[in-house]
Amino acid sequence: MKSHVKAVVIGGGVVGCSVLYHLAKAGWTDIMLIERSELTSGSSWHAAGGFHTLNGDPNVAKLQAYTVQLYKEIEEISGQSCSLHLTGGVMMADTPERMDFLRLAHAKGRYLGMDTELITPSEAKAMFPLMDEKNFVGAMWDPVEGHLDPSGTTIAYSKAAKKLGAEIVLRNRVVDLTQQPDGTWNVVTEQGTVHAEHVVNCGGLWAREIGRMVGVELPVLAMEHMYLLTEPMPEVEEFNKSTGREMIGVLDFKGEIYTRQERNGILLGTYEKACKPWSPVNTPWDFGHELLQPDIDRIAPSLEIGFKHFPGIEKAGIKQIINGPFTFALDGNPLVGPVQGLTNFWCACAVMAGFSQGGGVGLALSNWMVHGDPGFDVWGMDVARFGEWATLRYTNAKVRENYSRRFSIRFPNEELPAARPAQTTPLYDTMLANNAVMGDSWGLETPLWFAPKGSEPKDIVSFHRSNDFGPIGEEVRATREKVGVTEIANFAKYEVSGPGAEDFLNRLMTNRMPKTGRIVLTPMVNEFGKLIGDFTIAKTGEDRFMIWGSSAAQKYHMRWFEKHLPKDGSVRIHRFDQTLVGLSIAGPKSRDVLQKLVDVDVSTKAFRFMDFREMAVGGAPCMVNRITYTGDLGYEIWMAPAYQRLVYKAIKDAGAEFGIVDFGMRALLSMRLEKNFPTWFRELRPIYGPFEGSMDRFIKLEKNDFIGREASAKEQADGPKLRRVSFIVDAIDADVMGDEPIWAKVSKDYGTVEKPHGYGAPRFDTAGKEVRGSKAAEGASAVRGIVDGEWRVVGWVTSGGYAHYVQKSMAQGYVPAALAEDESAGLFEIEILGHRRPARINVEPPFDPSGEKMRT
Ligand SMILES: Cc1cc2nc3c(=O)[nH]c(=O)nc-3n(C[C@H](O)[C@H](O)[C@H](O)COP(=O)(O)OP(=O)(O)OC[C@H]3O[C@@H](n4cnc5c(N)ncnc54)[C@H](O)[C@@H]3O)c2cc1C
């Protein structure tokens, strides 16, 4: 065993072996994988080996597609078969709602290059004759599905990595990790200490324990999972003989089961409601190639439905029931990337579908380690997406919820109840008393909307407009015409201070920093000129700035800030989280309300649009920004939590004479739509350049050499390929939710329409070939323009909904730049729940296009 390597990968499951292979392929060959036992000694050896490309997050879906296409390559390099069976598979819908869900997934596939197809139950039965098609209303066919040999595949990765120069050390447990002052690691193992620049946690079932070695509690939990194998079935053999094909994979939402052919019998697995965590606090180190005791009672309800839906299977004898543990994060997606607050400590764990995702995880992580950037939009699996609130018990509750809902529909207006309330502001009880329907915003209870007095504060979940529609309209109208107040504790807030603060921010941000007492809006881009943040910044004093941003991106942004902090201690960053909370008042009467609560002049001239002041509001020390996300005259007021109730009561009392109302997040988001304001993580993401994102006026290329300036200048000089635009949609009773395809009737061929997926750093395309130059900049995911007569899919929706004040259904999304200013009617259609609705670009915001109201 070497005593010094560039990187140590801990864990020889499918994920560790994939990371090792991708690191070696990217040129880091001085690397070592350390495995406690034999390869596949965690969950990898007893997996059912199924793979598929579909995922709720289109970016994760693309990485899954990459994984599937990689298998041929590792087979060739290693000479080891993965026993790949690319059978294709169907998802069966038993209700119209589930069919809507499949229509949405199918529509997304249109710009992701996925060849899914909506088919009838009889067509599905023809490919899987063991089903009773009468139980279903429709299905979706996905050709990129199948199964493989889990051990063979893990070995194939490991052999391919070894061929490229990587070392693998077996039967050697990592017992401790200690960081050196220079940021490198001593990896203490049973066979001695290895010094490494980087450490990767691919510990699977033990990822939590490895995290604890460096003082981190990763939000990951193992769950027991069962599948059964039948005796050989004559029906299966007969089907194979008569068609010359294997039976396909089937996913049955209602039964919460997946099933497929295994040899000449059937494999059937369940995600049962009565699910059970395994080793919820500590994973025993002596657990190895063992299985858990099957518990047929737990899966009986799923089997009952399964046997009804697939009567052919019920007749077969059960040969074996496998029960094994594997790990999940709160939302079922992996935890990948550098851990914020640590140097050179990387994660690739909580990979619940290692054979669908392992390749993509390895590729993204190796890009990140070697080139400083994952090269893809990996937010959906970034380890930074969960906060400190994701404790062991929180994780336990959420993972159980996620597991038991694995095949359930998540409606766009559905808030999930587990582990709530976690964090609350001092106004929580007041908001409940006001009949608020609460939502979870990065672990914080936040009012979404206010149900009318006497009615139950509860969402009726739906893909269509629901019971919040009327009340949100009331909140919007009262705010726009009088005044409204809302909680904004769920924004991220940071203070950057010290003699180097201004230079630091000028280096990170695309806009100029404001003068003392003023505010700017500014995007942040990475070296590749892609959007990685969007902030409001106020200069609050000499060498002192306040920053507000997206709540969910707090760790993601802190990681970036810390990476770029000068080493001389001239800049300090403080993240407030919930030690600073806020209220926003908006609407034409908001100034009158504020003036009653303060002892300073807040008239138009004395307190201008985009001004910042510290002042006592209702007697409480506060910071006040003259800005609101609603696009009205308005203010954001920030205070310590101890003052929040006092300030809220003062605002409500002062606003009573003007008819003040409470409004929630949904009204706020509706109002921003009619101002064409973007949101972070929907419109603005690291796959878009700032000019594509239509953020032109915040990009000051001439100000100084900020990170990403060169790439941004190039984007401007070349002209962006895409542009973010706003649409007015002729919707009926359902508005866009995000990810819908945008169709255009274009006589000119815009050629290949690509959803950018990867960017910047050298990396590999979906065929495993290294991509460089212009193709790399465009993204590896070649998504074809889909022809339907003259109508083509030319873009995708990022978000939208009903804009209540202007009474229009609106959407934002990306289209080819050449079409971005074409407001003609009849040019665009947006596909909502399988129906293409006419849509028209709206260049100017429909509410207050001149911005007069914000400035008065
Ligand atoms: C019953 C069942 C069915 C499944 N079906 C499928 C399926 O159909 N499709 C699919 O994609 N996935 C399936 N999975 C999930 C799949 O098994 C996992 O996604 C995958 O195995 C995760 O791989 P991993 O490398 O992250 O973790 P693991 O396989 O758990 O590997 C972690 C490795 O790290 C080693 N290790 C841990 N700590 C240390 C240490 N301190 N020092 C040295 N070594 C250490 C362990 O010994 C182990 O070998 C299934 C799982 C189960 C249980």
User: How many helical elements?
Assistant: 21
Our Rg estimate from Cα atoms comes to: 27 Å
Form type: globular
The hetero compounds bound to this protein are: flavin-adenine dinucleotide
Mean pLDDT: 93
The profile of the biggest β sheet is: 9 strands, mixed
Describe what you observe in this structure:
The protein has 856 residues and is of the alpha+beta class. Helix content is 26%, strand content 27%. The protein contains 21 helices and 41 strands. The strands form eight sheets. Strands 4, 5, 6, 12, 13, 14, 15, 16 and 17 form a nine-stranded mixed β-sheet that branches. Strands 1, 2, 8, 9, 10, 11, 18 and 19 form an eight-stranded mixed β-sheet that branches. Helix 1 (14-25) runs parallel beside helix 10, helix 2 (58-78) crosses helix 10 and helix 13 (469-481) packs across helix 18 (665-673). The longest helix is centred in the N-terminal third of the chain and has 21 residues, at 58-78. Residues 757-789 have low confidence and may be disordered. Bound molecules: flavin-adenine dinucleotide. Residues 10-16, 34-37, 41-44, 46-51, 173-174, 202-206, 210, 225, 227, 322, 324-326, 349, 351-356 line the site of flavin-adenine dinucleotide (FAD).
Question: Layout of helices and strands, plus pairs?
Answer:
Elements: E1 4-10, H1 14-25, E2 31-34, E3 50-51, H2 58-78, E4 89-93, H3 96-112, E5 117-119, H4 121-127, E6 138-142, E7 146-147, H5 150-163, E8 167-169, E9 174-179, E10 185-189, E11 192-201, H6 207-213, E12 220-230, H7 234-243, E13 249-252, E14 257-262, E15 265-270, E16 277-278, H8 296-309, H9 311-314, E17 318-329, E18 335-338, E19 345-349, H10 354-371, H11 392-404, H12 428-433, E20 436-441, E21 444-450, H13 469-481, E22 484-487, E23 492-497, H14 501-508, E24 519-525, E25 531-541, E26 544-549, H15 554-564, E27 572-575, E28 581-586, H16 590-597, E29 612-617, E30 620-625, E31 634-639, H17 644-655, E32 661-662, H18 665-673, H19 709-718, E33 722-729, E34 741-745, E35 763-764, E36 770-771, H20 773-778, E37 787-788, E38 791-803, E39 808-816, E40 828-832, E41 835-841, H21 852-855
Parallel strand pairs: 1-2, 1-11, 2-8, 4-13, 11-19, 22-32
Antiparallel strand pairs: 3-7, 4-6, 5-6, 9-10, 10-11, 12-15, 12-16, 12-17, 13-14, 14-15, 18-19, 20-21, 22-28, 23-26, 23-27, 24-25, 25-26, 28-31, 29-30, 30-31, 33-39, 33-41, 34-38, 34-40, 35-36, 37-38, 38-39, 40-41
Helix pairs in contact: 1-5, 1-10, 2-5, 2-10, 13-18, 16-17
Flavin-adenine dinucleotide is lined by residues 10-16, 34-37, 41-44, 46-51, 173-174, 202-206, 210, 225, 227, 322, 324-326, 349, 351-356.
